[in-house]
Structure formats: structure tokens, C-alpha cells
Write a structure and sequence with these properties.
single chain; 348 residues; alpha/beta; Rossmann fold; D-Maltodextrin-Binding Protein, domain 2; 14-stranded mixed β-sheet; 14 strands
């Protein structure tokens, strides 16, 4: 099963993220996809309500797959809290199945109910998280219950029914826009021209610089910034004990990943000196005990997103690699200034 999943992931890499378009014969479906999505966008935009009484920030991407949205959301929440805001995270809760929405996530909420990323964000940030496939309904719930005075939507760039004041689009620095084609020929959810309307473009994995990037894979935008995810610590799933990431050097590691781009996780472990055996699973995979089998001499290492789903049955050799986003000071200042700017009409 693992070999099949890894092969499928490799196939997608070749079909979407190379320089060519081997699926070009599916171009009529791409045109249909674009027509449907643009129609839905226009309809939702025309039917949207007036702006909400608090700033609304949307973090998303125009490509399919993982780009690092959740670590960026966690970083933004921390910076906003330090600046005096009370942020609330809104999430669709992909992979979860609750019998009732909106769902306010707590430390006791199951990932099966809320989804893995909302639980990870609630535990990692300590700020309120509200899950609802209808993000506007989640926003109304947060405001009605006075959970905070700023809303930040994790992965909602295409959810146009939610009014927004700021948009951030995140890219994987290695994958970029792939072959530049729309689904299913390529990985794009929306045309690259959509970026002209976002406030910031964040590139995950490029060298950190204090200055914005002039361009990225041919994309021109006045505010392109790089982001680096730095390994911070290892946390044992069974006990919560901490361990230095330097301990991975020379260790045999079974790297377990059910995320959008597992290759980035595997490469991170190798950079830390681990001898890696890859175990890739589909994004938002529902793990079972047999998924965490390893040799006695191996450490099992996974992402924080996967760890929240495995704590109940994790063996003693299972660890979570906690990463922290790092962005330029210039972006922090520009972002907070933009938040203050869009909040002024709401408070005047």
C-alpha cells in the first residue's frame, strides 16, 4: 500500500510539477474547470455580505497540495497576539466529520471530528479555532461569542462568501506553479493572474532575505516574501517529552507523512542527518496502529499535523518534529501595518 501511495505521489510530481504538460489532452476539462470556478467566484462575490466588523485575513494558495499555510497561520497568529490583537482561526476542517457546525475546537476535540490541522493549530497557538465548511457561519459564531477581535482563515482563498480585508497566497518554493496549467492538466486552482488581487505572496523554502523578492518563477508582485520552516524540537507522542533535533544525526528514522508534500518533510530529516526510510501516505490520512510499525532500532518521526491523529496508539519510539516559521522583519512590519490600516475604517 505504501509503495502504491508513494508511486501515485511521484506520478503527480511528474505530471504537474515538471516543465511539460503530459496531460494537455485534458485541456477541455481545464477550460471547463476555469469556467465553473470563475462563475462561482463571481456569484459568491456579488452575493457577499457587507464587510465584517473586525479585520478578516485569508491565508491560502492557488495550487493544489501542501504549501505551508498552517505554519504561516500559526506565525501570523503569534505576531498578531504580540501586537495586541485577539485572533480567532477559522477552518474548513478538512478530513473531519462533526455532527454539528460551527465547532469550537478544544484540547479534547478529536481530529476525526474537527480535522487534523484545526486541532494542531488549537494546540500549537492556544487561540480559539472554529471549524465550519461555511466559513462565514464560523465567522458569525466567533463574533457572537466574542472569541476575538480579528479573524484569520486558514486555507480559504477560494471561499469567496467570506468577506476579507487581506489575502496571502503561499507557494512551495520548490514546486512553484508547476507546469502553469489549471487542474487537471496542472496544479493551479486559479490562474496566475489571480495573484494581482492578493496583498502578499509568501514563498515557503526560499532563502530568507530582509528584502522582498523581485519575482518568483516569473510572477511579478510588489510584496513577495520568503518563509523558512525551521526544525525546533522533537516531541514524544506518548509522554510529551522533548528531545533535541540534533539527536537525529546518524539515527535510522522511519519518516511518516500524510501531508500534501511529504518530500519536503523527508528532505528536512535528511538535512538533520537522519538515515531516512520514507513512509508516505495521502494528505489528511487517517492513521492506524499498523501504519506506525518500525524496526526496534528505528525512530518513527512525523509532522505535528499527523501526530495529533496518532497520540492514542503511538508506540514509545514515535516522535513529532515541531517546526517554526521564520519570516523577514520587513514582512512583519508591512503585514501589521496593513492590518492596522484595514482596521481603521472599522473602528472610526
Amino acid at each position: 500500500m505504501r509503495s502504491v501511495q508513494a508511486a501515485m505521489s511521484s506520478l503527480v510530481e511528474r505530471l504537474w510539477y515538471g516543465s511539460k504538460r503530459p496531460l494537455v489532452f485534458l485541456a477541455p476539462l481545464s477550460w471547463l474547470y476555469r469556467s465553473i470556478t470563475e462563475g462561482r467566484r463571481r456569484a459568491a462575490w456579488e452575493a457577499r455580505d457587507v464587510s465584517l466588523p473586525v479585520p478578516v485575513i485569508v491565508v491560502g494558495n492557488i495550487t493544489a497540495g501542501g504549501t505551508g499555510k498552517s505554519p504561516l497561520t500559526a506565525w501570523l497568529v503569534a505576531e498578531l497576539a504580540t501586537a495586541g490583537w485577539r485572533p480567532v482561526i477559522l477552518s474548513r476542517g478538512y478530513g473531519g466529520n462533526s455532527g454539528k457546525y460551527p465547532l469550537e475546537v478544544t484540547a479534547a476535540t478529536s481530529p476525526d471530528e474537527a480535522g487534523d490541522e484545526p486541532v494542531m493549530l488549537a494546540l500549537g497557538t492556544g487561540c480559539p479555532v472554529v471549524v465550519d465548511p461555511q466559513r462565514r457561519r464560523a465567522a458569525d459564531y466567533a463574533l457572537k461569542n466574542d472569541l476575538g477581535n480579528l479573524l484569520i482563515c486558514d486555507d480559504g482563498l477560494q471561499h469567496y462568501k467570506l468577506p476579507r480585508d487581506l489575502e496571502l497566497s503561499v507557494f512551495d518554493g520548490q514546486r512553484g506553479i508547476g507546469n502553469g496549467a489549471l487542474i487537471p492538466v496542472g496544479p493551479l486552482r486559479e490562474p496566475v493572474s489571480r495573484l494581482s488581487s492578493v496583498d502578499f505572496v509568501i514563498v515557503n523554502g526560499k532563502d530568507l532575505s530582509e528584502q522582498p523578492l523581485e519575482s518568483f518563477v516569473g510572477i511579478e508582485h510588489p510584496d513577495i516574501y520568503s518563509m523558512v520552516l525551521e526544525p525546533a524540537t522533537l516531541v514524544q507522542l506518548k509522554t510529551g517529552a522533548f528531545r533535541s533535533v540534533e539527536d537525529l544525526k546518524g539515527k535510522r528514522v522511519r519518516a511518516v507523512a500524510g501531508i500534501g508534500n511529504p518530500v519536503r518533510f523527508f528532505d528536512t530529516l535528511r538535512v538533520l542527518g537522519a538515515v531516512v526510510t520514507e513512509a508516505a501516505f495521502p494528505d489528511h490520512h487517517r492513521f492506524r496502529p499498523e501504519d506506525l510499525e518500525a524496526d526496534e532500532e528505528e525512530l518513527i518521526v512525523m509532522t505535528a499535523k499527523d501526530a495529533v491523529k496518532c497520540q492514542q496508539f503511538a508506540p514509545e519510539n514515535a516522535w513529532s518534529l515541531v517546526v517554526e516559521a521564520r519570516l523577514p522583519d520587513q514582512f512583519r512590519e508591512a503585514f501589521l501595518a496593513r492590518v492596522r490600516q484595514c482596521s481603521e475604517p472599522l473602528t472610526s
